[in-house]
Amino acid sequence: VIWMTQSPSLLSASTGDRVTISCRMSQGISSYLAWYQQKPGKAPELLIYAASTLQSGVPSRFSGSGSGTDFTLTISCLQSEDFATYYCQQYYSFPWTFGQGTKVEIK
Amino acid sequence: QITLKESGPTLVKPTQTLTLTCTFSGFSLSTSGVGVGWIRQPPGKALEWLALIYWDDDKRYSPSLKSRLTITKDTSKNQVVLTMTNMDPVDTATYYCAQGGVAFDYWGQGTLVTVSS
Q: For A48-63, how does the pLDDT look when each residue is reduced to its tens digit (9 = 90+)?
């Protein structure tokens, strides 16, 4: 099983801030990593796959980077609609696993 | 347009078997590379991957739940069914189905299943 450490678990930020969320793997996964955004009461939505490929329709202020064991999701200029919980997920090997989530809240 | 929708009981008793159906449209589960998975989320907690079935009937399960899970597909009905035996209150969660051969591109709205006597 590949274990994931996602940090921070809670991030307080203001509109316009640049924020970064980290996801670290217990072993290398090449670039087989996805990022999701989830708003309260809603299903997750895919933001990024293959570590850095933006899903169609996702604003360009979202970006992903990393490979191997260390990955980062960056929101370059936080907007009001970005306050949500973010999850990383590896699909390098089964069982697929999700990170514990990062809640981005208004400071 | 790809859509998925989960259906099944909202309340089950401990020790009962849960059967959830994912009915989808906009894609075929007979297309090479396509998969449909199940993910759950206990209230206020993180996402947990449960199972996945591919177009070629390859099935994968969470090791911690493998003995309790069965995933099947009915390509003609555009449905994927997940059964989970011996339900316990800790299995109370929103259960999602999602499409994707790799990352999950499309998700259903989820269905909350409560396990209580």
A: 999 999 999 999 999 9
